[in-house]
Design a protein that fits this description.
This protein is of the alpha/beta class and 239 residues long. It has a single domain (2-213), classed as Rossmann fold (3-Layer(aba) Sandwich). The protein is built from 7 helices and 8 strands. The longest helix has 23 residues, at 164-186. The protein is elongated.
Length: 239
């Protein structure tokens, strides 16, 4: 069975090489978040670069093009919309600064996208890691804090019924959902969350940066190696 799986994966890889660039555009579907919104109004900035973000890389002779822009927009709007009572989207931080109701401005970015192909994991699964950086600005444009978190996703290769591109798509969507869950579960513990809920506008001065430095970090799932550890051997008692 394992030999069949490896043969099928190798065959799929050969097909991919023959087709030139493999392009996927993961569109994550996020479950309805079960969190209580903070009574705050914040700004959200998605730069043109992030809206059109694309990761391109050649691995094992296969050229990959992963269109991340749509997924990044869905991630940002989902986590911000679930966290805060009102989210106002702006083209840039300067536009957000002109809105007197905005208490803080969030600028999420995908800082790093990396993956391991089935060939690199022994023919069993595809793994994707996405590192996010979320800059938090005060309404006047000063830097208040920087949050970082990592999402991790995997997808098992299912033989010919699930090709490498399908597995990469599923693993990428899984990484986005993982990162969203981390943010939603942990943001409420940060001191800035309490300040925003109290109706305060975040500051970007020295005092604000000191408060940010003392805030809790959003924990990231440890990045696993590209190869899955071998399972323990199966033993049977001697009759």
């Amino acid at each position: 069975m394992r030999q069949w799986r490896l043969t099928a994966v190798a065959g799929a890889a050969a097909l991919l090489v023959g087709c030139g660039t493999v392009q996927i555009a993961p569109k994550p579907v996020f479950p309805k978040p079960l969190v209580e919104q903070l009574p705050a109004t914040v700004g959200l900035v998605l730069s043109a670069e992030q809206r059109d973000l694309k990761h391109e890389e050649t691995r094992g002779g296969v050229a990959w093009a992963v269109l991340l822009g749509a997924g990044q927009q869905a991630f940002a709007r989902t986590v911000m919309g679930a966290t805060f009572r009102e989210v106002r989207e702006f083209p840039d931080s300067a536009a957000a600064a002109r809105d007197p109701a905005v208490q803080a401005v969030f600028v999420p970015q995908i800082e790093q996208y990396s993956f391991a192909t089935a060939d690199e994991t022994g023919g069993e699964y595809v793994a994707v890691t996405i590192r996010y950086r979320i800059e938090v600005f005060s309404p006047d444009g000063g830097v208040h804090d920087t949050l970082t978190l990592t999402g991790y996703g995997t997808s098992r290769m299912g033989g010919m019924e699930m090709g490498a591109s399908d597995a990469m798509d599923r693993a990428t969507r899984g990484a986005m959902r993982d990162a969203a869950a981390k943010f939603l579960a942990q943001f409420g513990r940060l001191p800035m969350a309490a300040r925003l809920a109290a109706g305060e506008r975040l500051s970007g001065d020295a005092a604000g940066r000191q408060a940010a430095a003392e805030s809790l970090a959003i924990e990231a799932l440890p990045v696993r190696g590209s190869r899955r550890p071998a399972p323990p051997p199966v033993t049977r008692a001697t009759p």
